Structures are given as structure tokens and as C-alpha cells.
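Reopening this ticket.

The earlier resolution said the output was attached, but the attachment link was broken on my side. Pasting everything inline this time so it's all in one place.
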Amino acid sequence: MTLGQLSSAHGACGSQSAFPADLTQLSVTSGNSYRVPGNGAITSWSHNAYLTSTSVTMKVFRKVAEPNFYRAVGHDTRPVTGGLLNTFATSIPVQTGDLIGLNAPDLQTECTFGASPGDMILSRGSSDLHDDEQASFTSGGGYRVNISAVFVPSNTAVVETPTRNKKKGTATLNLTLPNPGQLTASGKGLKVSPANTPVEAGAAQLLIEATGKKKHRFRHKGRVKLSAEITYVPTNGEPGVQSVPVVLFK
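Inline output:
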């Protein structure tokens, strides 16, 4: 999933008078948002560089207080080649609501480009926040930050200790999901309820019971070991598959 937008023409950074400068995008009236929609990672970023080669830092900012108080939570500094679209692989963990932005070291950085008056940018001149540093930003309209990034939502479900109902001979798998998506489960000799369901981020549950020969063995021995294959597909993401052992007791 692509976040942010890039300038289509090369021009120096004219929206700042004090460098270095931290910039991020609060909102846009059209096109890709700069806001991270879930929990996961930034896996690459791009910048359409001005004619002069320099270094640019891609940054991630997280809101800590109203109205515009943000903390830097991740960054990646790279030398960019002037006059070209530069793209770099990276790995920066992000959370829902984070904003992507950049640090412009000097006037030769193409940090922003003109857009709609309704587009709201956040800037802080004479600033280069390190990770975990926080500060207040100034808002302004009519510009967009010249940065884009690829966001990959996390597809790892955290499986907690199952809850067993020994009277009914079932087990409930308790899961914590990082993002909304689709959750399914299957396995030999078992039945899962619900079998295929949309889920929100947070807690989710799957009820496991034995079927067929496994159920027959369970009735006679009072214990059976199963293996549930859980598939979790976050919205706009790739499927994550986990094999979870489940023991039923009677």
C-alpha cells in the first residue's frame, strides 16, 4: 500500500526559511494519504530529488498531544541523486495513525510542492528531531511533502493460551490481531467456529472441537491432540499462516 505523494516537477524547497527542517503532511484533499492505516512496517520510500545531489531523511512522526505535538519514531537517511526519482528499501515499524514525512537539510532539497489550499502541511524549521524526541509543529495550507512510502500491514496473529471446556470437550483459541482483516482456520479431524469471518484489530476467538476419527478417539480416551492451521489476512496485506497445536481434554 503506497502512502504519500511525489512532486512531478523539480524545484527547490521554497516553503521553509530555516534549515534543516522537519516536515510531515497532516491531510490531503485528494490522492494517497500520508497517514499509516494500520500496524506494520514501512518497507521502502521514494523522493523525487531536485537537480542537486544531497542527503534526505525519511521520517515517521507520531502524535503525542494536541494540537500538533509530534514525536519522531523512525527514520532512514540516504544520499539522493539530483534530478531523479530515488527509491530505497528500509524497515521501519509503524502504528495506526503515524505520519510519514522528511527532513530537508537545506534549500536545495525539493521538500514540498504546491497543491490545493486545503492540503495541510506540518513543519518545524531549524529542526532535525532524533528518534524519541518530540516538539510542536506549525500547520499551513497549500503544500504537500515530496515523499512516498510502501506500507505493509502486519499479518502475525498473537496466539494466547487456549481456554478449554472439559465438559464439552472443546477449546477456544484466543488471538490478538494487529489489523482488521479476514481470519480462517482448518485442520484434519477438527471443526472451527466461525470457519471464515471478517475481524477487527484486537481480540478474536476460534472455537475448536474434534470431528471424525479424532472425535471417536477423544470419546474413548478423553484426550486428543489436534493441529489447527490459522490463516490471517490483514486488509490490503498478504496472508500469514500459523500452525497451532491444540489438545482437547474431557
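Reporter confirms the inline version is readable. The mean pLDDT is 93. The chain has one helix and 22 strands.
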